[in-house]
């Protein structure tokens, strides 16, 4: 009988477990899934928290359900983990209890700390060592905030009695019954504490961010055994053999394993991760240099750029202004028009991300005439996805990343064929959407299968027919549209100044 991999996908809004069957040809096929929504806590403006105990309970429940649905624990041979990145957890090494709610990646409470570090001139050093800009998004300042806010935590952390970790480490610690305090190198690469070249914690950064080494997990590769699950949890022990942060796991899931391979996930926001090969590429366009994955002593590096509002612009048209009643309508409505009629929508609802990094920018619609209809708004929102993607690809090119031959896509918005064709047209690169969409969980499962020695490479074997969109827009038309977009972005930024 074939064996199964249990993939845990702990995301920002839900916790999921997926059972993948590993077939003879090395392909991983989903058998069962279980999902539980996660409560979001907003104690103050700009603060976002999760209950770490709730995350662990949901992980356990979804895993148990999926094991049952897939035919019992005897069918499984390894566990892989993927998770929301940067979120900070603090817990008691003795009791295992969280000492505070987890601080979620979106949380801005440490903005004053990173602003001070920028003012003191630390950004260049931090960026050179970690590939990251100084921003409260990353974990280090969240760890320090937790240590300073929980009475006695800092002293106890120095003694190793209080532990710190991102969500993957919290899950590994719980899955191993407290035996393993381990994180994977991709999650560690998002803390601002890890050296991007050596993949080890840096004492100077731990000192700068005031995070004691004694509380931090050991850094492991992405496909490396990091202990067995406590037999009491699922009836017998399973080895934990794979782990990567969500965007990196998706890179692996897509099989974007070579320099010049890239994926973009179009959900609420959009995340581009481009494989740049076996050495980090420093960005001068404010993309993030990060680790793609580290497997068996070799590392693939990546450049990453985030678009804050992608599908959320469609949500706004539906829920905010009621121009559509269902996101799916957007495709047909956009296609009722021969072109955008000169209307551009800059979706700066929560500021503009890479490469603009204009947190104070706000949304804008330009080019309205008496002919403008809701269809123009919808079309402009979909077109904006493509223009924003193009801006990221241009930034990649400026940074000297290898040229892109193919853009692999996943996420809810990719159901929209008009938008995907427009991305291909505006970016001048073919766009490919795999038949199976759960790239994040698939990546975690593939890493776990490799770590357990069940497959011998990360090469994908899921070859169900993908959808491909080829660029077909004339260059003059593309240039004209991009000029219009750039004027609109400038206007949005000037309006916010
Ligand atoms: P997340 O993981 O960020 O919650 P998903 O990958 O589930 O996001 O995608 C949800 C997003 O996709 C929503 O913002 C929704 O507006 C958008 N979306 C879903 N279907 C379509 C569609 N057919 N056309 C355009 N946008 C869509």
List key phrases describing it.
five-stranded mixed beta sheet; Nucleotidyltransferase, domain 5; binds adenosine-5'-diphosphate; seven-stranded mixed beta sheet; single chain; globular; 497 residues
Roughly how many Å apart are the termini?
64 Å
Task: Give a quick account of the main beta sheet: strands, pairing sense, barrel closure.
Answer: 7 strands, mixed
Strand order of the largest sheet: 14-15-13-12-18-19-20
Number of helices: 16
Query: Structural class, please?
Result: alpha/beta
Radius of gyration: 22 Å
Distinct bound molecules: adenosine-5'-diphosphate
Tally of structural domains: 2
Q: In the CATH classification, which architecture of the largest domain applies?
A: 2-Layer Sandwich
Question: Roughly what is the average pLDDT, rounded to an integer?
Answer: 93
Outline the low-pLDDT stretches: none
Tally of DSSP β-strands = 20
The CATH C-level name of the largest domain is: Alpha Beta
CATH superfamily of the largest domain: ATPase, nucleotide binding domain
* Percent of residues in beta strands: 15-25%
Shape: globular
């Amino acid at each position: 009988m074939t064996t199964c991999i249990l993939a845990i996908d702990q995301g920002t809004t839900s916790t999921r477990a997926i059972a993948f069957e590993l077939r003879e040809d090395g392909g991983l096929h989903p058998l069962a899934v279980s999902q539980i929504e996660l409560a979001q806590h907003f104690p103050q403006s700009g603060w976002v928290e999760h209950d770490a105990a709730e995350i662990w309970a949901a992980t356990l429940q979804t895993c148990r359900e999926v094991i049952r649905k897939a035919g019992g624990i005897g069918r499984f041979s390894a566990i892989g983990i993927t998770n929301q990145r940067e979120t900070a957890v603090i817990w008691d090494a003795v009791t295992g209890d969280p000492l505070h709610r987890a601080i979620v990646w979106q949380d801005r409470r440490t903005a004053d700390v990173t602003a001070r570090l920028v003012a003191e001139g630390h950004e260049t050093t931090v960026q050179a060592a970690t590939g990251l800009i100084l921003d409260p998004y990353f974990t280090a300042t969240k760890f320090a905030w937790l240590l300073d806010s929980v009475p006695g935590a800092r002293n106890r952390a120095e003694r190793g009695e209080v532990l710190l970790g991102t969500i993957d480490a919290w899950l590994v610690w719980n899955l191993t019954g407290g035996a393993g305090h381990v994180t994977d190198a991709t999650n560690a690469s998002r803390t601002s504490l890890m050296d991007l070249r050596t993949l080890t914690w840096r004492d100077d950064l731990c000192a700068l961010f005031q995070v004691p080494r004694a509380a931090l997990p050991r850094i492991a590769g992405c496909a490396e055994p990091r202990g067995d699950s406590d037999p009491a949890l699922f009836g017998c022990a399973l080895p934990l053999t794979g782990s990567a942060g969500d965007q990196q796991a998706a890179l692996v899931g897509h099989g974007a394993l070579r320099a010049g391979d890239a994926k973009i996930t179009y959900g609420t926001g959009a995340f581009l991760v481009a494989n740049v090969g076996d050495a980090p590429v420093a960005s001068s366009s404010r993309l993030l240099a990060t680790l793609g994955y580290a497997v068996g002593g070799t590392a693939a590096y990546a450049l990453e750029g985030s678009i804050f509002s992608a599908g959320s612009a469609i949500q706004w048209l539906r829920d905010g202004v009621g121009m559509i009643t269902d996101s799916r309508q957007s495709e047909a409505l956009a296609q009722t028009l021969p072109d955008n009629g000169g209307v551009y929508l800059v979706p700066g609802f929560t500021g503009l991300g890479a490469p603009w990094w204009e947190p104070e920018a706000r949304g804008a619609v330009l080019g309205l005439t008496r002919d403008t209809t809701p269809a123009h708004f919808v079309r402009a929102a979909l077109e904006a996805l493509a223009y924003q993607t193009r801006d990221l690809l241009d930034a990649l090119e400026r940074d000297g990343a290898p040229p892109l031959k193919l853009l692999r896509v996943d996420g809810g918005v990719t159901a929209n064929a008009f938008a995907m064709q427009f991305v291909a047209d505006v970016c001048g690169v073919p766009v490919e959407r795999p038949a199976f969409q759960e790239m994040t969980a698939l990546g975690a499962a593939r890493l776990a299968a490799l770590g357990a020695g069940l497959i011998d490479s990360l090469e994908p074997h899921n070859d169900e027919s993908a959808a491909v969109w080829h660029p077909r827009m004339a260059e003059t038309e593309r240039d004209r549209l991009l000029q219009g977009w750039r004027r609109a972005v400038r206007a949005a930024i000037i309006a916010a100044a």
